[in-house]
Amino acid sequence: MGSGTKLPVWICMVWLIAGLASGDEEVLRCYECNNTDTSCGSPGNSLGNVRECPNSTMCSTIVMTHSLGQGKEWTRTKRGCSEQVVIYQVYVNKDWVKKYRINELKEGCTKADRSVQCNCHGSLCNSGIRGLSKSPTLLILLAIVCTKVILPV
User: Fold this and answer.
1) CA 88, CA 98: separation in Å to the nearest integer?
2) How far is CA 53 from CA 27, 109, 136, in A?
3) What is the pLDDT of residues 12-21, one digit of tens each?
4) Cα angle at 51 between 114 and 77, to 5 degrees?
5) Rounded to 5 degrees, what are φ and ψ at 91?
6) HEC states along 7-68?
7) Which positions ≥6 away from 45 have C-beta within 8 Å?
8) What is the per-residue pLDDT across 81-94, written as a single tens digit (0 to 9) for each?
9) Which of 15, 17, 31, 93 is the most buried if burial means most Cβ atoms within 10 Å?
């Protein structure tokens, strides 16, 4: 093989470049499934399909709990693009023109009567697990690992 450091340097560079580039996605992607999909959000099951969200800046997860009586509950999860589009009309040249605006929502969770709605920034953030591709901590960790591999102490 000759040089023992060329392969680790190459791998480290690819990791770091991929990690930095993943933060600049043009279109947000979110997991999507509706509350009739019984596997959505269940342990060991799919998080839903991946959908592009050109009209959103956030992903959402809504967990609804219904009481079945006798202390039993039924929980359903809905994932998708946050509903941020506000439709309004403007009077232009003697005619009403429909306009659209994306309303920025507060990041985090709000609890209502029997549901919890969460909104988050970043592609695929509505998995319930923080996305690793956008984590600055991950990039720092990769840089440290690469430094240890390239420059052994």
Assistant:
1) 6
2) 6, 20, 24
3) 555 455 444 4
4) 20
5) -85, 115
6) HHHHHHHHHHHHHHHHHHCCCEEEEEECCCCCCCCCCCCCCCEEEEECCCCCEEEEEEEEEE
7) 39
8) 999 999 999 999 99
9) 31
